[in-house]
Specification:
The structure holds 2 protein chains of 2 kinds.
Chain A: E1 4-9, H1 12-16, H2 19-32, E2 39-44, E3 56-59, E4 63-65, H3 73-83, E5 92-93, E6 100-101, H4 108-111, H5 129-134, H6 139-145, H7 149-159, H8 171-180, E7 187-192, H9 201-208, H10 210-224, E8 228-233, H11 238-253, E9 269-274, H12 284-291, E10 315-319, H13 320-338, E11 348-355, E12 361-366, H14 371-378, E13 388-393, E14 399-402, H15 412-417, E15 426-431, H16 436-450, H17 456-473, H18 481-495, H19 499-503, H20 506-524, E16 539-541, H21 551-555, E17 561-562, E18 570-571, H22 581-585, E19 591-593
Parallel strand pairs in A: 1-2, 7-8, 7-10, 8-9, 11-15
Antiparallel strand pairs in A: 1-3, 3-4, 5-6, 11-12, 13-14, 13-15, 16-19, 17-18
Chain B: E1 5-10, E2 13-18, H1 23-30, E3 54-57, E4 64-65, E5 75-78, H2 82-97, H3 113-120, E6 145-147, H4 157-165, E7 172-174, E8 181-183, H5 200-204, E9 210-212, H6 216-223, E10 229-234, H7 255-265, E11 269-272, H8 273-293, E12 300-301, H9 306-315, H10 329-345, E13 352-358, H11 362-366, H12 374-383, E14 396-399, H13 400-409, H14 431-434, H15 441-455, E15 473-480, E16 483-491, H16 493-505, E17 512-516, H17 536-549, H18 560-570, H19 576-582
Parallel strand pairs in B: 1-5, 10-11, 10-13, 12-17, 13-14, 16-17
Antiparallel strand pairs in B: 1-2, 3-4, 3-5, 6-9, 7-8, 15-16
Classes of the chains: A alpha/beta, B alpha/beta.
Amino acid sequence: MIRNQLLVCAGGACITSGEKSVKDVLVDELKKNGIEDEVQVIETGCMGACDLGPIVVVYPEGTFYQKVTVKNAGLIVNEHLVKGRTVGELLYTEPASEKRARTSGDIPFYTRQVKRVLRNCGAIDPLSIEEYIARDGYFALGKALEMAPDEIIRILLDSGLRGRGGAGFPTGLKWKAAREAAGSPKYVVCNGDEGDPGAFMDRSVLEGDPHSIIEAMAIAGYAIGAEKGYVYVRAEYPLAIERFEYAIGKAREYGFLGRSILGTGFNFDIEIRIGAGAFVCGEETALLRSIEGKRGTPSVKPPFPAQSGLWNKPTLINNVETYANIPQIITNGAEWFRSVGSTKSPGTKVFALAGNVQNTGLVEVPMGTTLRELVFEIGGGIPGGKKFKAAQTGGPSGGVITAEYLDMPIDFDTVKEIGTIMGSGGLIVLDEDSCMVDVAKFYLGFTVDESCGKCTPCREGTRQMYHMMERICDGNGRDGDIERLSKLADVIKDTSLCGLGQSAPNPVLSTIRFYEDEYRAHIYEKKCPSHVCKHLLTYSITPDKCVGCTACARQCPVHAITGEVKKIHVIDQSKCTKCGSCYESCRFGAIRKE
Amino acid sequence: METRMLNVKINGRDYQVPEGTTILKAAREYAKIEVPTLCYLEGISEEGACAICVVEVKGARNLQRACLAKVGEGMEVWTNTSRVREARKLNIELLLANHPKDCFTCEKNQICDLRELAAELGVREVKFPRTRTEWLPFDDTSLSLVRDPNKCVLCRRCVNVCAKVQSVYAIDIAGRGSNSTVSTFLDEGLGNVECVNCGQCLLVCPTGAITERSEIPDVWKALGNPDKIVVVETAPAVRVAIGEEFGMPDGTQATGKMAAALRSLGFDKVFDTDFSADLTIMEEGFELIGRIKNGGTLPLITSCSPGWIKFAETFFPKVLDHVSSCKSPQQMFGTVTKTYWAEKMGIDPRKIVVVSIMPCTAKKFEKERPEMKTAFHHLQEKLGLKDEEAFNDVDYVLTTREAAQMIREAGIEFASLPDEDFDKPLGESTGAAVIFGATGGVMEAALRTAYEVITKKSLAKLDFEDVRGLEGIKSADVDIDGMTLKVAVANGLGNARVLMDQVQKGESPYHFIEIMCCPGGCLGGGGQPISHNPDIKKRRAEAIYREDAGKPIRKSHENPEVQEIYKDFLGEPNSEKAHHLLHTDYCDRSCK
């Protein structure tokens, strides 16, 4: 008889912070106490609050233990389970109120979220198909197979679901086009080549709730008339691949994949295809080439994959997060789906919250949630009392949302209006210390590396833009650089072959739009207002504050600081490499950085 | 089904084009508006990589690639707005930023598409610096071709021609982004992979990134050496193309001027590969007759084209038994010159330098094949030569382009030269030899001889129209005195592959197959002048068949000099001596 369950988060972040050893301690301690038959230990998918890991939740009460280590994991067994005493030191303390939270329901990070896509992540054992079924899993497939395919597509159209991969194209229209396209066989493809830096919602779903994707793809197969599906997962996600492979096997065993699913005569099966580390393979035409075993380079659209995709056959391709919505829409209906979110972008969106914010991790919120809610209420604000500067969304294809738009509801269309994109949901919070020129340069560098090299504007143009950005950050900016960057950016956007190139200049254009003054400071004054760009910094010693302790001189790796004991020190600017070690070492605030 | 016509407005004027027409085609063919392209080759390279052909389409967010975007009903296209012009110009500038600025010394100087585009689009400055940090090494592993990756603009024309036309797949893109290059398997270089040296990549390269391995300096050196007797032979397809290099109209028969020019360059004897083409017909024709009569391996497949031979050795080693053991005319010529002619003239063969002028880059590879030292082996004992004194049958191979370059360097006014004849005896040839230069020509020449030899009757009509023309695969049933000879002709290795798949499976219905590696046959070879005329192959073929029609003798077996070489030297066709000197064998190059 099981009296308690210990849910141990086995998401990527928790695994890297020691989840496996914590679990082993829990199992050992249970055995030592002879209660291993009464308490079940379950490894789940990602619970979302990545900076709190490893996380252990004790059910039925739902006690939420965070930052569990091998040293204190035993307490959960010996104190909580054996003696019935909550382990106070492992509870989460809300920084503002200093209150201890007993369950996830007491933690603002969780209370503001609406879990739909992530509803099973962190709640069930992803390796257990029974647990998925227990949470109404495969109900939608059964229901769909009793419906006419057009009826399924009608529900999707009514739901207003838009592609979560970034562009926000209406999913129902894609399904309709694939259904109506002439040609056979047809294919269903799931894009799990999540590549935006910092985004990991697709990985979480594949690792934490793989059956939801299998179910959705089977529904898609039935709706468009396909018998074969491919899941394209990047090679950097070995755990996702392992769990998904296992889930496919289980689904076949239970008759949710294979011949005559649920006895209806409908056949469908799924294969995994593993990427080889190219960001551009997230672009759908490149992804399809990669599945075919060819070099992953994009091709011009039209024809769209729905008309001519895998092996030139009609192909439906959706992103992981999009698929994760499907079973629930079929089960609960279009109206239910529209009950949250904004009119034009209904439903929820998962964001990967990162950067200069208290709580990092995966959060799922209704579309239309404001940046303020995301950053300050869910994210707990900016650490160190720093000021919020901007949030970068859409990764290397996106741009920034600035403080003046903190109260703008975020959805596909609103972000576009201010020059960024929703993208796959990466949201990186930048505080006042961030240099926007440097941030733009970082993202541009990413696309320069990840351009497939096929078309001139993307291959050569982004490289030239990067070169200019480097010049600007190195203090070699020239009059007219902003105009040159903008002009080049326009042509790259206008003539690149695929979405990667067409959006590559966005981080630069967006930061020029909102922070032109920072660009100007770099170019004309040779200053980096945020003191980030190393070549534009000057370190000097304020004579009034220097006590002559020699700490800085001893730290300086290039012996650029001279001065005797108890006498004012001086930095030789010609020798200084701007490494900042003097600044770090001075206990009197005498080193000035400007 | 009737094609629907669509209404399209281009630069404000209305046109009707069939459904499925690209904007590029609509502009060029219907509106007579030039839209510049760089990476595009109709039907072969349709990648949309260069972003030069962009046009504005009303309602479209971005500029559209005219080469790929299809016309839609009611579409409004603008090919000449400032947005379009600026974008094209800027993309050319981006390409030029990393392109070497050595146009003065570049082989493609006068025929560079990139340079022409820059001029046409009015690029007067390159605002961008070079961003590549290092110069990439040349690929000089091949005996035929040299690749300079620094000049490559990654248009992929070479990749596509190699894959889609030739089905060789020797080159593809390696690396990513601005580090991507056209490369071979594991960067081994063209000389170490399945490349068949056909040079079709070179013909389509818009810049000087692919050129032939030049032998011009060697030939100048030989010509300047008074101790050497330098003999030149010219392939059939050269005479109908070399005039293009000197501004003469496409399809000019320049045989006489070519002979005059070569003589002016200082060659001691100006001979003709056509002589050995006739010889090839004798050997191959008799081989065919023998195989048919004696139940030998059929179909017999021709062996004149060294690109095809390497292709067969690499991809179809099982069909090598089907391939004629005859050497190519070039190699027969070299052997005969250094044996028969040397003997006849009383010249030490070591003093003879054989230079062949070929429409072909693969010939440069062929002459270096280790088995192509027959004259040396034939004479080694007689002259008491040591192994290290071995010499090739053919010493140097120049492409048509290289020959033209030498003529230019010598200041010879090609177009105003008087017509001259070839020297005798190895300059005598027939119409049957001339047509070797066009796809189907070897077949037709062989049929002319085989028919008359087998039937002992005179052919009423010499022209076998069924095997002429530029289609990829042609076939015909030829009646030879009640026996039906089934023949097929393929040009371009992609087409050869189709026929070879049949042969390999034992399903080929043919008795005799002619394969030419290059599209159109030798007249479309990788050594020919680079032309932008889409009908160039047709023009050259017409010239070849005119040349044939004008020849007094049009059947190889009637060539008096060929008859004489058999009488005085070789004995019978396919005799032991002929086998020793004029036949060869092949090696299996497949990955096992």
